[in-house]
What does this fold into?
Amino acid sequence: MKKLLIVVALGIFTLGFSQNYYNDYRGSIASINWGQVAIYLGLNKAQINQLTILNSRYPDYNSWNHMYGREPNRWYTDRYYAMEKIMTPEQYRRFYARYYQGLNPRLKYDNDYRKYRGRSMPYDRRFNDHHDDHHREHHG
It folds into this structure.
């Protein structure tokens, strides 16, 4: 009986924990006016279509959880590397500077999370400041 309660408790905790990450994922899309991004960056029609597809990839928690349920903080790296591939290096630099104030998106959401929810998310070593090094090495 104890084991069953532990499993249920872990499941509920994980669901709530993952749900917070999904909320951040959706917020990363909803908090930006993508039409203004397209104009500001001078995106072409193909880029706009690719961003639209990227932004609608996981429309609900279940689809997102199927991909990221075991590693919920991996969405940061996947999403921003995909965006980096869609945009030119100059467009991505401008996007990054304007919408993330030059901060690593992982750190920005961590800071926002703490600011609005009062606690921090676990540190994800895969998305650390080395992303900025990767960006500089490959894009200028």
